[in-house]
Amino acid sequence: MKIIHVPCLEDNYSYLIIDEATKEAAAVDPVEPEKVLRVAQDHGVDLKLVLTTHHHWDHAGGNEKMKELVPGIKVYGGSVDNVKGCTDKVENGDKFSLSSDITVLSLHTPCHTKGHISYFVTGKDEENPAVFTGDTLFVAGCGKFFEGTAEQMHQSLCVTLSSLPKPTRVYCGHEYTVKNLQFAVTVEPDNAKIAEKLSWAQEQRQSGLPTIPSTIDEELETNPFMRASLPEVQEKVGCKSAVDAMREIRQRKDTWRG
Fold first, then answer.
1. Residue 50 belongs to what domain range?
2. pLDDT tens across 122-148, in order?
């Protein structure tokens, strides 16, 4: 399983998931379909599926055009989210295949939108899996609570996504990592892992390279939202529960200017 970044718009990422044996591919949130198709053609792959994480235009806005350009392509999206161009609605726990070797599991990860889906993708046994988290989980951050609650984001991050295997590669929808880590330092100024990752992320961006993927393991060490269940993080933000800490950290991030 090969995963290709396709930078789109100002700071979005679309992705191609490729089965190198069969040359079949899926596109994740192909907001600029012509660009995504050019990259697919450059790699000699046949686009079969679109995986849409949520209904916002900068993720789902290319679906109708993609259906015009690739007749018969299947477009997956959350059943609750009214995704533009969706042909196949998915619920939490639904499984489908890209190819004989690549399986996709739909995980309902609501809060940013009501029907947000993260896609957990597994290939051959020896490969580390990947999860495409849209705007629910960012590297060192999470999406704004546009349509949901702190309880939902806690469930999405600290229960659903945190329970994935630690080596799972995390591919999110935007390049927000440096800002997210700069904020994370304000929550946990003594966390050496955050400082180390911030330094690395700044070097990556200065070199014009992405900071994505992360891993679930790295997020559990450096992402304040994923760490809201930890008593030491709750204490730092003056809270006594994981949900209260999630709410407080999000409120701080919403007003933080950096």
1. 2-255
2. 998 778 999 999 999 999 999 999 999
**What residues does 13 pair with on adjacent strands?**
7
Kindly state the helix (H) or strand (E) to which residue 3 belongs, with its residue range: strand 2-8
pLDDT tens readout for residues 213-232? 999 999 999 999 999 999 99
What's this model's pTM, rounded to 2 decimal places? 0.97
Cβ neighbors of 208 (< 8 A, separation 6 or more) are none
Active site positions, annotated: 54, 56, 58-59, 112, 135, 174
Burial of 79 from C-beta contacts in 10 A (0-12 / 13-18 / 19+):
middle
> What CATH number has the domain bearing residue 248?
3.60.15.10
User: How many distinct structural domains can be found in the chain?
Assistant: 1
DSSP per-residue string spanning 192-210: HHHHHHHHHHHHHHHTT--
